[in-house]
């Protein structure tokens, strides 16, 4: 078995070094002794006096509107302290360790908080950042927090986030954001007391792979849409964006050595929708934006099937050497590049080589699904050659679980999308060393409808309401697969019927946070009743951020979200807040989409 997920020994908050505490205010002491004590704690008497003032102000303030436990995904450990609520003041400073990656996170935090608070929130670096009435981001190298964990302490004197990595600080910032009043999501200054609930959180992910997939091939989504999806992933501590870049209906990335793939193969989409493709610069912009949010892009070139768009551009790759006309329908399984032609392997090597050169991440996804017309032995031999090409590029292979029968390749990963709880072929591949990402079609496929009347989406894997998205355990999902072979979870969004950003958001929210929680939170926190309460509170945040979401009946949405939604909800969504935006008009009906009943 190759590397197992990061070990999870259960640390206690007490196991970790305590944050540097401010010395308690020396009440009945002389000024000189107070100064000595203050200096011992690295603070002047004036600073201590201000800390005491802040403590008094916080005690007089109304309690924080958000509870420390209202975080999604649920943190590993929470210790609330009702006496320690913190009021963010207009003159608060963000102090951060003098490390470029940490300073970048501090800049992101300031950029998150400035629009709604209207506070300047200057960022300054320090050898050992302490809150001093503001927010400290401390890259302290606490090894027990792992590659992505963080510790958050909220006291009347400020907030301290400590982590061993910038990714950990970034995740801590997402938690901090969720603990502020929902109006923090507003793009314009809001009148609000920015009170945070006191206490401590210790948090680390259950799995190293927590992803979402966006199909940009069936319908094309431009760079700004993808960047916004990346923001959504970041909020919920996901760390992988899998881009399904090629399919029968469109090829979406420029390849210099095979230019017609994008210009010809990228021209169309499902139905009448416009095509499009990412230039190299576009793709690099997406990769860099994701990396700034500690998210790795996993590009997928689907092979040998789902390649009709490539064949329209280069007939030489087709078994009959004839370039077919474009395909705009939604059938699957009919196309393939010729596995018997050496030219096909030139194509694969050139394409994967160019993509690898643009992609800093370790993984190349080679698809492998639904190549129904390729005989089994030919298919396995093809996959083995492609695995070899990927290894030659210094990268690790991910493929849909159909690649299981092919010989093992070092560190290869299978992405399970079946709808049953067992599959001997996949189990056998795991026995030979493969590891798994779980995307069970009947729980994690966000292109499935929520309910029979959902205006867009499929139902071949069943209806997936929030409870169904949430109620499964990645560790025991596939019979015969040991828990150590599971790297994590991923929620794919196929876009045969999804045509706009609002529709993407409508399918992601509120289900994406459910999958995110399965990937991040310890199993001991798993509790549908508590989750639905916590998640429903986020509707107010999504409305404030202008995110379209489905107000599905299974969640206890707050009756009157206090923050108005600036954007029109997507078709089928209940209005996010009164006064309602008109739900005029029928949801769009497109080729390949079942009209709503
Ligand atoms: C199956 S899942 C597919 C996709 C479709 C999806 C629709 C997988 C690896 N292949 O080609 O878009 O179903 O739900």
List the helices and strands and how they pair.
Layout: H1 31-40, H2 45-60, E1 77-80, E2 86-87, E3 94-97, H3 100-117, E4 123-126, E5 135-139, E6 150-155, E7 158-163, H4 166-179, E8 195-196, E9 199-203, E10 209-215, H5 223-235, E11 240-244, E12 246-247, E13 250-251, H6 260-263, H7 280-292, E14 296-303, H8 308-313, H9 342-358, E15 363-367, H10 376-392, E16 396-400, E17 413-416, H11 424-431, E18 435-438, H12 441-444, H13 466-470, E19 486-493, H14 501-508, H15 511-520, H16 528-536, H17 538-545
Parallel strand pairs: 3-4, 3-5, 5-7, 10-11, 10-19, 11-14, 14-15, 15-16, 16-17, 17-18, 18-19
Antiparallel strand pairs: 1-9, 2-8, 6-7, 6-9, 12-13
Helix pairs in contact: 3-4, 5-7, 9-10
Ligand TNX is lined by residues 332, 369-370, 400, 417, 445, 447, 458, 494, 496.
């Amino acid at each position: 078995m190759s590397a197992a997920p990061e070990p999870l020994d259960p640390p206690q908050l007490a196991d970790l070094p305590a944050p540097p505490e401010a010395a308690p205010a020396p009440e009945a002491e002389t000024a000189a002794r107070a100064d000595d004590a203050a200096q011992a704690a690295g603070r002047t008497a004036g600073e201590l006096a201000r800390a005491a003032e802040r403590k008094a102000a916080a005690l007089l303030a109304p309690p924080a509107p958000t509870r420390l436990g209202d975080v999604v995904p649920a943190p590993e450990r929470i210790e609330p302290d009702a006496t320690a609520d913190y009021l963010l003041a207009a003159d608060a400073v963000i102090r951060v360790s003098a490390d470029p990656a940490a300073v970048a996170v501090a800049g992101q935090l300031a950029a998150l908080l400035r629009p709604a608070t209207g506070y300047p929130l200057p960022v300054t670096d320090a050898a050992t950042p302490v809150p001093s009435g503001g927010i400290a981001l401390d890259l302290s190298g606490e090894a027990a927090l792992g590659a992505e964990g963080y510790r958050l302490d909220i006291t009347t004197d400020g907030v301290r986030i400590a982590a061993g990595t910038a990714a950990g600080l970034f995740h801590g910032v997402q938690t901090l954001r969720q603990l502020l009043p929902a109006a923090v999501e507003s793009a314009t200054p809001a009148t609000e007391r920015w009170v945070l609930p006191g206490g401590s959180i210790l948090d680390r992910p259950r799995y190293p792979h927590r992803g979402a997939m966006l199909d940009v091939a069936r319908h094309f989504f431009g760079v700004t849409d993808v960047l916004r999806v990346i923001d959504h992933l970041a909020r919920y501590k996901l760390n992988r964006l899998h881009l399904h870049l090629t399919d029968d209906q469109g090829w979406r990335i420029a390849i210099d050595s095979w230019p017609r793939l994008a210009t010809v193969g990228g021209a169309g989409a499902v139905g009448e929708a416009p095509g499009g493709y990412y230039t190299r610069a576009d793709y690099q912009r997406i990769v860099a934006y994701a990396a700034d949010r500690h998210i790795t892009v996993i590009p997928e070139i689907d092979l040998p099937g789902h390649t009709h768009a490539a064949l329209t551009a280069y007939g030489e790759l087709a078994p009959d050497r004839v370039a077919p006309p474009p395909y705009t329908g939604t059938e699957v399984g009919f196309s393939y590049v010729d596995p018997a032609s050496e030219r096909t392997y030139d194509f694969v090597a050139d394409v994967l080589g160019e993509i690898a050169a643009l992609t800093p991440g370790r993984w190349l996804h080679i698809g492998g699904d639904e190549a129904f017309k390729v005989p089994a032995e030919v298919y396995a031999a093809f996959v083995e050659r492609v695995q070899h090409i990927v290894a030659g590029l210094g990268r690790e292979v991910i493929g849909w679980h159909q690649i299981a029968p092919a010989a093992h390749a070092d560190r290869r990963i299978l992405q399970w999308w079946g709808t049953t709880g067992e599959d001997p072929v996949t189990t056998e591949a795991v026995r030979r060393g493969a590891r798994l990402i779980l995307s069970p079609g009947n729980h994690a496929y966000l292109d499935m409808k929520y309910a029979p009347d959902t205006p867009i989406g499929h139902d071949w894997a069943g209806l997936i309401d929030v409870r169904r998205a949430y109620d499964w355990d990645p560790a025991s999902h596939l019979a015969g697969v040991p828990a150590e072979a599971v790297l994590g979870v991923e929620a794919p969004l196929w876009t045969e019927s999804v045509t706009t950003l609002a529709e993407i958001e409508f399918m992601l929210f509120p289900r994406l946070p459910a999958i995110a929680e399965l990937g991040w939170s310890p199993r001991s926190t798993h509790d549908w009743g508590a989750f639905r309460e916590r998640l429903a509170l986020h509707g107010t945040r999504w409305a404030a951020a202008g995110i379209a979401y489905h107000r599905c009946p299974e969640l206890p949405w707050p009756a009157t979200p206090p923050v108005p939604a600036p954007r029109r909800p997507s078709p089928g969504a209940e209005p996010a807040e009164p006064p309602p935006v008109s739900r005029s008009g029928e949801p769009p009906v497109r080729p390949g989409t079942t009209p709503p009943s």
